[in-house]
Amino acid sequence: MSDILEVTISHLATQGDGAARLPDGHTVFVADTLPQERVTIRLTSGGRGQLVDILTPSPHRTTPPCPLFERCGGCTLQYMDLPALLEWKTGLVAHALEKAGFEVPTTIQSYQVPLHSRRRADLAVRRTEQGIVIGLHAKGSQDVTDMTSCAVLHPTIVASLPALRATLRSLRAVHKAADLHINLLDSGLDILLSTDSPLIATDRQRLTALAEELDIPRISWQRMKTTGQSETAVQRAPVFQTIAGHQLTPPPGAFLQATPQSESAIQNAVLEALPARLGKRATVIELYAGCGTLSLPLGERCQVQAYEGYEPALTALKSVGKSRITSICRDLNRQPVMGKDLGKAEVVVLDPPHAGAKLQMRQIALGKPDYVIYVSCNPVALSNDTSLLASAGYRLETVSVIDQFLWSAETEAVCCFKRESSRRSRNALSHWG
């Protein structure tokens, strides 16, 4: 199809593409557009259109700050100003909760992280005729755009890339490709390198030299597409991170919230959502605890049973030795905590992966704890999961939106739900028994 049409963008869809209604009533999705813009498009296939020209730009359109924007797939919405971006993401979360069956509070707290604040990066590495390329996949492609600048990542990570390119070019372990996971911890850069070939002795020597050059305490390594734990290739200093005033050693490639600012915002939102009457002897069950981002601040307020399926992360949490936190290793996707146990807790807190809580959510609804605090990084999963709470008679108390993924369609939310004792909630659950 090669038809060129003039349309008005009505809204942004969940992945950030503009949506417009065609004369025949169908909806077309157009990348790089904003609501209320009048544009010309070329119809392609699959209900999509290619932007040809912007006739009437939105007042929220701005010049992308990164010179790699048109090639790098990391940021898809840099043409949108940041206040409008936060408002759109807040609307995504509100719509997801309404779809789940809740009345959304008129006031939603929101926070947006500053530029150059992201402390973790998952980067692709490719060996080309010109040398090593490190960066993110180009939009709609498997090609990797070499990251020479970034408006999102912390400058320390960006500054390390030239030395990383030079070292990786010399490694026999990088035959064609590698993956690079970088965490910026309190102790400095922490690197997990995954390569498509084995690491040999001279590779280890070169990684040691890189660690000396960049003052990196630890470099870990594993073979690509393997499920086993990594091994330490270089260890020249202690590795540590402080969470809620407690120092621990995260495992290689550990999951941390994207920025220190968003970590604090999420922690504060969770603590503020706790019931005021909660005493220090009260029990909170926390699911998907990780290294303790929420467990440790919660442990200052009450007793915490922290469940996590990744044993190295739980080992890091246990090393803190906080008496109010009981850590349990359990794969919640295969062996969820049962409703009868969840119902004994005053509050259930969960921060599931992007796909959501799935089986675990059903048990929460069956257990009927008085309060559920759900930390979400995916509005679609949030809507699907919390629809069970709506059917179980919960009401939505508070919502906080934290934009820690600037210029992407991803967003974080902290939602507090309170159970209302009623015949309706008991009847809604009876058919699950």
TrEMBL record:
The keyword Iron-sulfur applies. S-adenosyl-L-methionine binds at residues 257, 288, 308, 351. Keywords: 4Fe-4S, Iron, Iron-sulfur, Metal-binding, Methyltransferase, S-adenosyl-L-methionine, Transferase. One of its GO terms (molecular function) is 4 iron, 4 sulfur cluster binding. SUPFAM superfamilies: Nucleic acid-binding proteins, S-adenosyl-L-methionine-dependent methyltransferases. The active site is at residue 377. It comes from the Bacteria. InterPro entries: NA-bd_OB-fold, SAM-dependent_MTases_sf, TRAM_dom, U5_MeTrfase_fam. It holds the Pfam family TRAM. Its EC number is 2.1.1.190, 2.1.1.-. Residues 1-53 form the TRAM domain. It is an enzyme of class 2 (transferase). Belongs to the class I-like SAM-binding methyltransferase superfamily. RNA M5U methyltransferase family. This is 23S rRNA (Uracil(1939)-C(5))-methyltransferase RlmD. It comes from Acetobacter ghanensis.
